Amino acid sequence: MIKDKKLVIVLPAYNAELTLQKTYNEIPFDIVDDVILVDDCSKDNTVEVAKAIGIRHIIKHEQNKGYGGNQKSCYNKALEIGADIVIMLHPDYQYTPKLIHSMAYLIANDVYHVVLGSRILGKGALKGGMPKYKYIFNRMLTLIENILIDQKLSEYHTGYRAFSKKVLTTINYEINSDDFVFDNEMLSQVVYADFDVAEITCPTLYFPEASSINFKRSSKYGLEVLRVSFMHFLQRIGLVKLKMYEPRK
Fold it and tell me: How is residue 127 annotated by DSSP?
């Protein structure tokens, strides 16, 4: 625990058999209290590996619910077991678990309620092998989002995120998409609810076993991100009143 706050790591998994143990072995259990793995109907032995390495909380979706649907199960389970701080870590080893201390203490010390591991701060993205077209899309989308959402984040698209219990019990993430745009919808809700967001530099690795979406899916994601940003802008200036920005009940 940190400052008497329970720290839970959630692992949204899909075909993570080859990288799960390496990720798990680097989790700092001097401060981490529990680990939750949600398997989104993998076609490999992710669940078997999770059991073998001793993960206590394992949820297996019988049907694939998508990246957003996986996160909903992660956060719901974390709240169920009494988490005060929740950090989402991808089990494909694209993000290093060695930043868990830094991210968790910013929340435990009541400095921030949300912390993002940014691949764009510094030179981590391209150095780690991010495809150039993804890097360019990332920068373009982030510029538009910052203008429409009225923020100054370096990126909105990282999968390395830490939240306080207050955030997860305030925003209505259950209403969000089950697809990849879930991440952007959640950040939009976080900002609209007036939670401050911190970013720390995060080195990133791109390799064959790391999960990544192709150009077609990336293009669809980009259009969805623009939709969310424009909706946030309209909500912010009072032209619409969307249910996704209502507090969680």
Answer: H
